[in-house]
Every structure is written in structure tokens, then in C-alpha cells.
Design a protein that fits this description.
Largest sheet: none
Distance between the termini: 80 Å
Shape: elongated
Helix content: over 70%
Number of helices: 4
Number of strands: 0
Radius of gyration: 34 Å
Oligomer: single chain
């Protein structure tokens, strides 16, 4: 130990500590940047999802205002979400056909009967709407009530 050079130890120790500190700092910055990149991607996905929801919400809001201002009843096209939900349910039921063939046939017949009934009901409603067209004042009041309910639900 007596042969050690204290001056040379200082000249070696401090550069070693500086290099070691720089290496650790570089590792820390690399970790922080990788986490920042992942968070940024997640934030972008969240922003895109929010934009899509706002787009749909704005379209609904715009449709209600157009119906109100034009004094018209809402289109049947506004109920497409229900139709797509019905289609999704039908697809789910098709995938779950692990039951006996007889039960599947009975369900199929029941579906066809239900579809026929729904179709007949729609036709009856269409005929009634053709026979009795609502007055402009009634349509305006209906659309105004729908818009007020829509706005109240948003608050």
C-alpha cells in the first residue's frame, strides 16, 4: 500500500466516476425515452378513439337539428345500429350451433317466424304512416322533444 501513488489515484478515480456517471445517465435516458414512446402511442390511440366517438356524437346531434329545422320525422336509417346488433346476435347464434340438429332447425323456424312477424309489423306501420301523415306542427314538436331529451342526457 505504501507503493501506491496518491496523485495518480486521483487522476484515475475522477475520470472513472465521470464515465460511470455518464453511462448510468445514458441508461436512464434510454429507459425514459422508451416509456415515453409507448405512452405517446397509447395517447394517440386514445385520441383517435375519442375523435371517432365525437364524430358519431356530432352526426347524431346534427341529424336531430336537421330533423327539427326541416320538420321531418327521423329516418329509418337512424336505427341501423339496432339492425347491426340484430345481425351480430344472429352471427353469434350461428357460431354457437353445437346443439342437436333438431334444436337448430326449431330455432331456425322460430327465427323465420319472428322475422316474418317483424316484417309484417313494419309493413303495417309503413301503411299507417302513408295513410296518416303527421302534421308539420306534430313533427316539429316531436323533434324538439327529442332534441331537448338528447341535450338533457348530455348534461
Amino acid at each position: 500500500m505504501n507503493d501506491a501513488n496518491p496523485v495518480m489515484a486521483i487522476w484515475i478515480f475522477f475520470p472513472f466516476m465521470v464515465l460511470f456517471f455518464l453511462i448510468l445517465l445514458n441508461m436512464f435516458v434510454a429507459i425514459v425515452m422508451s416509456i415515453y414512446g409507448e405512452l405517446r402511442k397509447n395517447k394517440q390511440k386514445d385520441t383517435e378513439a375519442l375523435a371517432e366517438l365525437l364524430k358519431e356524437d356530432t352526426a347524431k346531434y346534427k341529424g336531430k337539428w336537421v330533423n327539427l329545422l326541416c320538420c321531418r320525422m327521423p329516418d329509418e336509417g337512424e336505427g341501423t345500429k339496432k339492425e347491426t346488433e340484430d345481425e351480430e346476435e344472429e352471427e353469434d347464434e350461428k357460431e354457437e350451433e353445437d346443439e342437436d340438429e333438431e334444436e337448430a332447425e326449431e330455432k331456425k323456424k322460430q327465427k323465420e317466424e319472428d322475422e316474418r312477424k317483424k316484417k309484417k309489423e313494419r309493413e303495417k306501420l309503413e301503411e299507417l304512416m302513408r295513410e296518416k301523415k303527421p302534421a308539420t306542427k306534430d313533427i316539429f314538436c316531436f323533434n324538439l322533444a327529442q332534441l331537448v331529451l338528447f341535450l338533457l342526457c348530455k348534461i
